[in-house]
Amino acid sequence: EAGVAQSPRYKIIEKRQSVAFWCNPISGHATLYWYQQILGQGPKLLIQFQNNGVVDDSQLPKDRFSAERLKGVDSTLKIQPAKLEDSAVYLCASKVQGANTIYFGEGSWLTVV
Amino acid sequence: KQEVTQIPAALSVPEGENLVLNCSFTDSAIYNLQWFRQDPGKGLTSLLLIQSSQREQTSGRLNASLDKSSGRSTLYIAASQPGDSATYLCAVIGSRLTFGEGTQLTVNP
Question: Which residues of B, range 18-57, sit inside 8 Å of A by Cβ?
């Protein structure tokens, strides 16, 4: 079974530039999450989708971050404009609706300089 | 708001030791608790999931316990090996999946 796919794996941008990350969840997984993990900290939930609807985006900095999951499968997370403090790993995860186990991708590593 | 704390933040042990990682959480209204492993430059790998009605789960050399009433979980690793070196994250599943800050484990040969 293919895992959660994320791209790009690594990105370096200058502050005030924009960046987009893509996630392809495991086939059949209706629930999709984006997490931000700053070095040395645990992951923090940015947004949770159920199919193409947003379940929880209370911790998403909406002035600069946006995410969409138009067809209920792939998702993109965009940051515009980026700040230095956005340097982190952006983890995508998915699970079957109603199931317990969550599967994580390998992450997209962002460095803002 | 759920808060998850992991102690210790870092641990270095010689190979072969048995060790315990601790996780505590403030809101006992949880569905499940999940332990993950994170290797440098990698995503998270699920190790064990304990449902709220369970007291413990075992997988190989790993044993995780859950005491909902006291808001605690422990991850026990028996006969540690250098390959166990990684960061171990505890995540509490309530209305939201909330992670602790992790314990960075180093097992020295």
Answer: 31-32, 34, 36, 41-46, 49, 51
Asked whether the beta carbons of residue B45 and residue A104 sit closer than 8 angstroms, the reply is yes
Closest Cα in chain A to B89: A42
What pLDDT does residue A1 have? Answer: 62
Q: A113: exposed, middle or buried (C-beta count within 10 Å: 0-12, 13-18, 19+)? A: exposed
pLDDT digits (tens, 9 = 90+) for A42-90: 999 999 999 989 999 999 999 999 999 988 899 999 999 999 999 999 9
State the count of interchain CB pairs (< 8 A) between A and B: 49
Contact A79, A64 (CB under 8 A): yes
- Give pLDDT, residue B29: 86
